[in-house]
Amino acid sequence: MWSEIIRVVSKQQHFILTTHANLDLDALGSELALDEYLRSLGKEVSILNSDSVPRSLRFVDPERRLRTFSPSRHQSKIQRAEVIFVLDASDGWERVGRIGRALAARAESLQDRATAICIDHHPDPADFAHLTVVNPAAAATAELIFDLITHAGGVLTPSIARWLYLGILTDTGSFRFPKTNLHTHQIAARLIEAGVDPTQLYKEVYEQHPLQLVRLKGYVLNSLQVGGNGQVAWCALDQATLKAFGVSAADLDGFPGLAMQIGGVRVSLLCVGTAKGRVKISLRSDGSVAVNGLAAQLGGGGHPSAAGATVEGDLAQVTAQLVARIEALLEVRP
Ligand code: AMP
Ligand code: MN
Ligand code: MN
């Protein structure tokens, strides 16, 4: 499945890499690893994302390769692109955010269009790219980038190994989510052989938080509500609370799953009021029920055990309605 992509890569010179809005380490690790590999082949590569890198993830990019899309600054770059890689997002051009329209125009241009290549592990891909490799069994897009680089005969440099490991570490919730399997661990072993220090990377991701973020975690744990016969746990977090703790909504990685620590909880819901007055919904499941269908009904998506959406509406109302829908999904009484 990689040969066609490898053939396109060998023929072209100008590449753009992008990913979904609401950046995470699988998205960024996959981009940075592919960027370094392509540059090792002498290609010209730009990583352009709709969102800027949240403070908590900046450590991943010491050389500042990640750029936030600006229509005026990047239009000529997009015009020159011969290949556009869309990583960790397969819902279509809208999922990549603001930059989506400009990239879609380049990929759909009647004369001399760029080749769009989608590599992802979310289920139910949209048909928007010219070449698509989507494997929902993969625990992270970084696993697929590992496969691509190794199939192409590329070298796993220490930095490529580090970025891929960060993607896998975080998208598997430290090797515990249901998609974690033998292949995931085999890849991790290869990355450790290539120079990754698991203890060091764990510390960089999970043990460098500001005090206020850890205090906010305490607040969320204290505010959890449980219903549906003990099978649903939820929390609504408003902007005022985020402001009071000095934490941004983009830095809440790991929060949606906190309630899964409680025995008997099958679905956990975190609703966060955003600065733009919308509600960002995060759903997690223990694997006994798929929550991505519900997220898709709300205009979002995701994996069976981790999904999300962003909707208009009042925080408390959205939360209450969702709890009711989850209880219906689980066929439990409130
Ligand atoms: P989150 O709850 O933001 O950590 O997201 C969990 C999963 O749901 C990730 O795989 C996301 O890619 C997916 N997801 C979250 N929000 C959206 C959205 N608005 N559209 C599509 N997928 C989403
Ligand atoms: Mn992602
Ligand atoms: Mn991912």
The major sheet is characterized as: 6 strands, parallel
The count of DSSP E runs of length 2 or more, i.e. the number of strands, is 12
Beta percentage is: 15-25%
- Ligand set: adenosine monophosphate, manganese (II) ion
Instruction: Sketch the topology as an H/E string, one letter per element.
Output: HEHEEHEHEEHHHHHEEHEEHEEH
Q: Which structural class should the secondary elements be placed in? A: alpha/beta
Please state the second-level CATH architecture of the largest domain. Answer: Alpha-Beta Complex
What is the name of the CATH class of the largest domain? Alpha Beta
Outline the structure in words.
The mean pLDDT is 97. Strand 11 and strand 12 form a beta hairpin. The chain contains twelve helices and twelve strands. The strands form two sheets. A six-stranded parallel β-sheet has the order 3-2-1-4-5-6, with helices on both faces. It has a six-stranded mixed β-sheet with strand order 7-8-9-10-12-11. The radius of gyration is 20 Å and the shape is globular. With 334 residues, the protein is of the alpha/beta class. It has two domains: 3-205, inorganic pyrophosphatase (n-terminal core) (Alpha-Beta Complex), CATH 3.90.1640; 212-329, Diaminopimelate Epimerase, Chain A, domain 1. Helix 6 (158-171) packs antiparallel against helix 7 (182-193). The longest helix is centred in the N-terminal third of the chain and has 16 residues, at 25-40. The chain has helices at residues 3-11, 25-40, 71-80, 100-108, 141-151, 158-171, 182-193, 198-206, 211-223, 239-245, 292-297, 315-330; strands at 14-19, 44-49, 66-68, 83-87, 115-120, 131-134, 225-227, 232-237, 267-273, 278-285, 301-303, 306-312. It starts with a helix and ends with a helix. It binds adenosine monophosphate (AMP) and manganese (II) ion (2 copies). The site of one manganese (II) ion has 6 residues, from loops. One manganese (II) ion binds at residues 26, 88, 121, 140-141, 171.
